[in-house]
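Quick check before the chapter quiz. The format below is the same one you will see on the exam, so make sure you can read both the input and the output lines.
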Amino acid sequence: MANDSKTWRCGKYELSFDRPRIMGVLNVTPDSFSDGGEHFDPDAAIEYGLAMLDAGADIIDVGGESTRPGFTPVNPDEEARRVLPVVRALAKEGAIVSIDTRHVAVAKAAVRCGASIVNDVTGFTDPKMVEFVKTSTCGVIVMHAGEVAAPTRTHATVQLDTSAAAFVAEKAREAAAEAAREAEKPARRRRGKLLGEPKPEAKLPGGVVQPSLPFGDPEPAPEPTDEQKQETPAAEQAAAAETVAPAPEATEAASEPNDRLAAMMRRSARREEAYVPTSQLRRFTLPDSAPIMRRVMGFLSDQARALIHAGVSRDRICIDPGPGFGKTANEDIVIQRETAKMASLGYPLMCAVSRKRFVGAVSGVTEAAERDAATFGVCLGAIQAGANIVRVHDAAGFAQFLNGYWAVAKPQPRRAFVAVGSNLGHRCDNIRAARDMIAEIPLTCVSNSSKIYESEPAYETRQDAFANAVIEIKTELAPLVLLDELQKIELELGRDRSKKAKANGPRTIDLDLLWMDGETHGGKKLRLPHPLIGERDFVLVPLEDLMHDPARFFRYNGVEVKEPEDRVGHIVGELGRM
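Here is the expected output.
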């Protein structure tokens, strides 16, 4: 939602939600459900991650284990080998990197390599993962993975007999059962504890109860009594036996030690594949939302509170209802329609529906890789209801989609600073021409300008002195769109951007986007705040005309600002007003 007051602290970064944030999916796997193998090579993955940043992604979510239905678990060593080079390279380029893992060892290694977010598909139900994140400063994503429907129980057929003899016989059976229960009570007591009581749940530091995994096996159906078996027709007994007996796939899943997520996803796939219409007609198109949302929102809020009690700051926590993880298409739609309720919990809310099965069900698109347009539609509905982050495979396409929608639907002018420099031709005239052209950019106006200063050349010192200024603007464009407009102005004023031109050599005009309100960005094309702003005297001195103490302002925004004597491109005089 526009002007959302939530913020998300992720290591050294702080994300605001005055506009939705885009998380690009980067699967370094051979078997992901829609893009498996496309970015399995680390170099290809790094290149693709940088391309998503340059196309508009705010966060890159790197995963090394596919969790699609029927996935094969990956051991932590192999997962780390896949993801760590990618995480390290993207973080070096200033990207906000999320590590998508359920393994504590992988999460630790990735954070050491520069990851700022831990995205745990098991919802931090592992106390070891909680212990790790409470000692770090990374952001955390709590996801719900598990079935949301109540366990199906098998009931024997009841035959109603209204005769007096049947009534007397039923009363006698009840009395005998009560007497048997009373007789068993002393025997069931051992050391002051009932044998039938559940085992205590794991506790986190501080005495906080760690809830059980949300994707545990369903409760077994109660065995029918001998009398019920006699009253139940043979055909119905056979059907009940088939229902209770485990499928071969379930036996295989049980043979894999301690991997309940894989077993749950297998059950989910079988539930989707085995669904057939029943003879009973339903009165409503979707199941009742109340029990579904109680389980999803209950788990998310419980886990968030458990993390807070363990020592994780509330502003580091994001929640994700986990579409597709153990849920049917109908259940996923119910959950998406209740986005506003989940947003009301007060945590940043993720919409991670990209190319999921239910998106294909509602759009009629069979191939997962072709579901991007339908994904955008579902994401837009979630954004309008309060979702803050969208996790998508097609980051470039969704950035275009979001920019178009946001420009029309959400008036949102933001403050930004543009540095202007020239040392060829009529320097001051070039700067004034650039200012006038910036004022003509769509959805943008010039609100203030510094004086024009003369400075020593920086980096490439064998060239003429520069004329420099800083222009303050207000714009409703996304940062990368604004950058494209600034580069068009450079080309129109004669800037040479060919490969033969020196990187810091003479130029007719140079326009650098220094800073934009609420924006942090990494990548090859654009870095925000500008990574060199703290060492450039020819930028910091003109900024003093526009704000009080720019050095303090940028230090507060996480920029290292050098002392005047240690800077480059020192100001040597004034050349007049803009």
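If your answer matched, good. The radius of gyration is 30 Å.
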